[in-house]
Request: fold
Amino acid sequence: MKKDNWIIKNLLKAAGVVILILILLILFLKLITRHNQELEVPDFAGLTMEDAIKAASTANLRLEVTDSVFLPRMGRGIIFRQNPQAGSYVKRNRRILLTINSLQPKKVYMPSVTGYSLRQAKAELTARQLNVGRLIYVNDMATNNVLSQRYKGQIISPGTAIETESDIDLELGLSSYNNMTSIPSVTGFSFVTAKDIIIDNSLNIGRLTFDESVKSYSDTISSFVIKQYPEPTDRLSYILGSRVDLILSTDKTKIVEIKKN
Reply:
């Protein structure tokens, strides 16, 4: 009987040791992995690297610049986007990958698009990392034939070095026999896509209004159209070069509602 008690006591002690080891192991793993101790990622977009580093240090996160873009309307060295996105939850000391606006502007040579159609000119400018700016229509026998190319109001000669992503205004012909267009629907589309659609329909971007969700230049680029004016039309009832005003947002609930309707 005494021997049985001794065996039981030792088994209980062994079980207790095993349980204790398991508890310590769980606590150790929890400490190492910081289980359930995730941190919310701050919004670094629009900040300088100096300010972002301070914010990252406070949040116990690490920053790493992995890419750069060049956006003329954005300050040099400003953070354009991040991965993971703001509002995500990550473990302490996680690396946040950043794309910044280049400190040195990249330049390309201005092509010649005079004599091209609007569609051909747009394709050529896009290939050179340039944007179609304002469409300026003047009376001419051939509609949408490029008569001149302009930069900041002045005619720009082919071969001129110019910063990438610059807007090139196009002076286009407008025949009295072919001068009307319809208004496409761009509601629900991203701003970049909406701009392409509007230009492809020989129209200009008009007034841009952003709701409270758009707080930075990065938000502007990633925003979606939630309303447009004029409303879409099926008839050719607007003269080429007319303006389309847009209201934009990054609020996904508004986008979902638009798609439902």
